[in-house]
Polyhydroxybutyrate depolymerase
Amino acid sequence: MAVRTHDEALMDFALVAGYLSRSALVRSAAAGAVFLGLMASADAASAAGCGEVMQPGRHPISFNVDGVSRSGVYFIPSAYDGSKKMPVVFDLHGSNSNPDGQLNRSSWDKVAEKNGFVVVALQGSLPGKTSGTFAWNVPFVPVSQTIIPTGAQGGMDEMAFIQQAVKTVKQEFCIDPARVYASGYSGGGRMLSAYICSGHDDFSAAGFVHSLRAGRPVEVEGKWLPDPVNCTPGRPVSIMAFAGVKDGQNPYSGGGNAYWQYGFKTAIQRWTQLDGCKGNGDTKTVNGVTFSLYGTCQNGARIATYVFDNGTHDWPKPVPSTQAVLAAAKDGETGMAKVVSVSASKPAFDANVDPASRMWDFFGKTDSSDVVATAAPAKVNAAAKPGTSVASDCATEAENQGTSCISSQPINMRRSGQGVQGAL
């Protein structure tokens, strides 16, 4: 197979519109880079996605959407051998971020390596505040209301991009079409909300971190509500959503930017109506984290939520097991006895939440009742506090110092956080 330059590969986009060919995969072992190019033959472009081993790890990918090249990053787990169809999760970054940064934040690639599935992180079309960062051109949200540089122009058709990306991935990878999922953070979750609301039914389930919407906000008799005309899903969809009560960017109770306005509870209430859910949700609270589950919705759909009393807009980061202990542990042997005593009783659920892992469990169990992770007794660390911390190290530096914090770290680094606080 002849190796072509990137520019030559892009020229092929004009030959076969809409998708990429597996036979045009070009790999560079030295650089670890893989991109997809098009073949001139429509027959080659329609070849099956299975049958070829692919290099594990992260790789750049390009998509042809109506003659325009769009970008992303995909992750292949070590277990991928091209013979067994795998699930896939699409990961959408927040504003002022990028696909690599989002994977660093969400750790979807680490979850994929452990559980054996493909991840595809897509890139928005609007420019971000710092070099190498981007945002989503969310429908019905004017660019002037988007958290990007003042004076930024345009933005592409993100709906067409996501739809084409899903189609391409199904064709070019060994994917189980019944197990296609999506996750979005902040602006990426608002984009994902709009995509599902528009009637696209590509995803069997979806997860949202500080971002769930149920249509654009409209004011009715002095109260902000989701526009019912603006959200008409193609079918009931299972949803897991995370929210922080102290989120200052997308406020839990509503308000904030013009694109937000109605709160998290209102969004959930609307989705329970859209999914035809019964009951008021089975709610449990442990260590300031409240879990709710609407387990009986139409067509087997479910809606699950995690609300953090002290949660901000940052992506929740689980505390290591050695730190997830009661503050009483600092009292020495007496405190140790207290911890052992409390840990002996099984809590309602594990409040030490890793969103990607929890979403993955939910995606795989949307047709069963077991969607709540149980807790294991934690080891003692006297300096630790219970609950969930946040991933904000690289993000805080990027926001405060104006640096881009672009990711070049290996995939085993845990959430360096490309613009976590700045990714909206």
